[in-house]
Design brief:
mainly alpha
């Protein structure tokens, strides 16, 4: 069984990796789902989220279109 401390450490490391990816301009959305993936899978989960965002499969930061006035 995984301890709560391990999940917190994985979540922090994964969140730092996702934040670094955003600083580098990769446009990864940081949400509860991405945080849970990073908390459970750690660094490989963060890499998976980044790859899926780069391929526009999931977790890409979305720009809300403006409606015409």
């Amino acid at each position: 069984m995984v301890s709560a401390r391990a999940l917190v450490v994985n979540a922090i490391v994964g969140l730092l990796i996702l934040f670094l990816a955003n600083v580098l301009g990769l446009g990864v959305q940081i949400s509860l789902i991405t945080l849970l993936i990073c908390a459970i899978f750690g660094v490989p989960g963060a890499i998976l989220v980044i790859v899926l965002a780069l391929l526009d499969v999931a977790f890409a930061a979305m720009i809300v279109p403006q409606l015409p006035v």
